[in-house]
Design a protein that fits this description.
The protein is an alpha+beta fold. It folds into 2 domains: about 1-150, Formiminotransferase, N-terminal subdomain (Formiminotransferase-cyclodeaminase, Chain B, domain 1, 2-Layer Sandwich); about 155-260, Formiminotransferase, C-terminal subdomain (Alpha-Beta Plaits). It is about 30% helix and about 25% strand. The chain has helices at about 15-25, 50-60, 90-105, 120-125, 165-175, 205-215, 230-235, 240-245, 255-260, and strands spanning about 1-10, 30-35, 40-45, 75-85, 110-115, 145-150, 155-160, 180-190, 190-200, 220-225. The strands form 2 sheets. Strands 2-3-1-4-6-5 form a 6-stranded mixed sheet, with helices on both faces. Strand 8 and strand 9 form a beta hairpin. The chain is globular and about 50 Å long. The N and C termini lie close together (about 10 Å).
């Protein structure tokens, strides 16, 4: 089984997000929308749903009108395939290659592969300037930009909001936290600031560990899980801390699969 966590550059027009979600409802496990980021993260299973969602988003959205605090290179910004159960990273890589070839051929949108070839931050920094797309036109699509198509293990997207709106402090904390296990940015979100993170190896360095690392440097107002978390991460975390860390049984990949009559083998 493959999970696909599609990040689209739309989080302000909820009617548009709801319409896109309705197109992939049978394979949609979760949606997280943020108006300040102007971004929605849709967790899907399989390969057909991500293609239907991408086609509709490319038709509906225009990057030239987009304003948001989160970095992006396209209206469908990031499409990572993730192995679950008995699927392998090689299966995810093959799915990512198929998707990238399809998007380039069918939608005329350039696609940059990340994972084994380069990291997502490297794509954000160097796309079009330092290297060209792996598939598709050599210049951005006029409305849709480009797509970063990835293959990776399960990660946890996690935000910590600071009590004081000190952007310099959030950025300094993010720099301190960055490592092979954590990607971090300090962002101004409305009148608040957050340390926005991807926990690359959440069993080694999970929500509790990064919460404690941030709170040792600044007061944390609240935590925010973006999307879903593997049950193993939940089980590795003290249950009495789950509310503080924005974790729950219902927010696990396994629980959401069960709502679709699916289970990991």
């Amino acid at each position: 089984m493959l999970e696909c966590v599609v990040n689209i550059s739309e989080g302000s027009r909820l009617d548009v997000v709801e319409h896109l979600c309705s197109l992939v409802a049978p394979v949609l496990l979760d949606v997280h929308t943020d108006s300040d980021h102007n971004r929605s993260v849709l967790t899907l299973v399989g390969e057909d749903g991500p293609r239907s969602l991408t086609r509709a988003a490319v038709d509906a959205l225009d990057l030239r009108d987009h304003v948001g605090v989160h970095p992006r290179i396209g209206v469908v910004d990031v499409v990572p395939f993730v192995p679950l159960g008995d699927a392998t990273l090689a299966d995810a890589e093959a799915a990512a290659d198929r998707f990238a070839r399809w998007a380039a051929a069918e939608l005329d949108v350039p696609c940059f592969r990340y994972g084994s070839r380069r990291s997502l931050p490297e794509v954000r920094r160097g796309a079009f300037a330092d290297f060209g797309p792996d598939w598709g036109p050599s210049t951005p699509h006029p409305r849709a930009g480009a797509i970063a198509v990835g293959s990776r293990p399960v990660l946890v997207a996690y935000n910590l909001w600071l009590s004081r709106p000190d952007l310099e402090a959030a950025q300094a904390i993010a720099r301190d936290l960055r490592s092979p296990a954590v990607r971090a940015l300090g962002l101004a979100v409305g009148n608040e600031v957050q340390v926005s993170m991807n926990l690359i190896d959440p069993l080694a360095l999970g929500p509790a560990e990064v919460y404690d690392a941030v709170s040792a440097r600044a007061s944390v107002a609240h935590a925010e899980l973006v999307g879903l978390v593997p049950r193993a991460v939940l089980e590795a975390t003290e249950r009495d801390r789950w509310p503080q860390l924005d974790l729950s049984d219902e927010r696990t990949i396994e629980a959401r699969l069960a709502t679709r009559g699916l289970r990991l083998e």
